[in-house]
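Lab manual, section 2.4: Encoding a predicted structure.

Procedure: take the sequence of the chain (144 residues), apply the prediction step described in section 2.3, and record the output as structure tokens. A sample record is shown.
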Amino acid sequence: MSLLLLAPIDLFYRAPTRDDPFVLVQPHADRQALDGPDAVNPNTVIIRWATLGLCTLIARTLTPTPAMTTVLDGGALFTGLRPDPVINAFVRNAVDCPTAGLTPLLFAHRAGDQWVVYARSRHHTEDVLFLHLTTLPLPPTRTT
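Recorded output:
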């Protein structure tokens, strides 16, 4: 399983507020549009928008309101470097928040029962590049 986090770009520099929108994108075909990580280049992942295929999108904020889910083609996520109007409408309907500045921030993929996390290095009109963020996979967390 892989997940892509879309969130306001300034979350790189500040803590999220309860009203910040974020979208989790889960590609249906896990490795279809991904270059890496692999034995040749384990530290980078490139996601190509045009070949991402169908994705489940989950929009929410940190408030306890329920999340809203939809399925879209990954090629429709961005128009240039901005979220596509379809994404803007989905997020506005889901969480009633402005969507200006939503951008790919993090990518994670499951390795067994752990997560390997990558941070965005470059966002291009055709793809996004992520660099390995953790030296070891993150262990599973438990909630009590």
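Check your result against the sample. Residues 2-132 form one domain.
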